[in-house]
Amino acid sequence: MQGVVFPGDxxxxxxxxxxxxxxxxxxxxEMKASGMCGSDLHQYRRSASGGASSTGLPPNPNPTxxxxxxxxxxxxxxxxxxxxxAKLGQRVMVFHYQGCTQCGHCKSGWQQLxxxxxxxxxxxxAHGGHAKYLxxxxxxxxxxxDELSFSAxxxxxxxxxxxxxxxxxxxxxxxxxxxxxxxGPVGLAATQFAKAMGARVIALDVxxxxxxxxxxxxxDEIVDPGSNDPVAAxxxxxxxxxxxxxxxxxxxxTARLNAIRSTKVWGTMCFVxxxxxxxxxxxxxxxxxxxxxxxxxxxxxxxxxxxATFCVERAIDVDALFTHRWRLDQADEAxxxxxxxxDGKGVFLM
Length: 350
Prior knowledge:
Layout: E1 2-8, E2 11-16, E3 26-35, H1 40-45, E4 70-77, E5 91-94, E6 97-98, H2 104-107, E7 120-121, E8 133-137, E9 141-143, H3 150-156, H4 159-169, E10 177-181, H5 185-196, E11 200-204, H6 208-216, E12 221-223, H7 230-237, E13 243-248, H8 253-261, E14 263-271, H9 282-285, E15 292-295, H10 301-313, E16 322-326, H11 331-338, E17 345-349
Parallel strand pairs: 10-11, 10-13, 11-12, 13-14, 14-15, 16-17
Antiparallel strand pairs: 1-2, 3-4, 3-8, 3-17, 4-5, 5-9, 6-7
């Protein structure tokens, strides 16, 4: 089979790999959709000479198929996999991490937090979904409801699931006003979910097209920080109270600081964007406002399944996130466009 590989320095290669066969406890998926995620760009842009990935793990020295938003059907089942874990033809997403499987973090569904072994991240240091087939442990499978498309499942497998997990982490409610900094795929999904949860949403981005999409996805107010003081705008829109909750998906240091400054006294601010830094004046920005800072890294497999159910029950059009649908042989063109970070979300369909 052919798979997409990032050799470094913004290059893409389509390489040939053996079709996988399932080992004990494993299944092979026939891929139907594999999403493109913003964190892919850390690998795509990484120097060919090496360096740590966005996960903090060293890259696999061997050519590794990328793509950590896999969705497909079970095509083969290995020894020791019970019918309760996987059945041939079953529609599934993949929880794209595996730890030791036995520690408290792993058993509670948070395998990416495992401290016992180097964590496998499918699409990063282990083969991912940008190929025809993918072999993964059966314990990483999350059922895909029949009401959702494979592309929707791919989005929930990371980007949209990350947005949902962050909102859950902040305990958002219909009483809240939330300001969401960055309206790329994760920020736009957060806007979509926050509205479905009943919140009032203020969407911020410097890209006019993304702000327009945020409005289409339910944002009550839009703010361009490039032409407005975002802190002052949020203060004005909340009658001097500031936002109950703020969420930064951009990783931009200025946006992160503005998100903190835009949060009300006793409010909560959440970091979800990977990488970068922020410099905080602790006393005025945090201590004297009793602010809560939260970091949210993806989600558990339980929350992934919950997100899918939420999308079904609230009739959320997850597929509306996608502006581009690609074939695997278009991967070079797809990532060149995605690298500009000026448009919406892309997905490879098989």
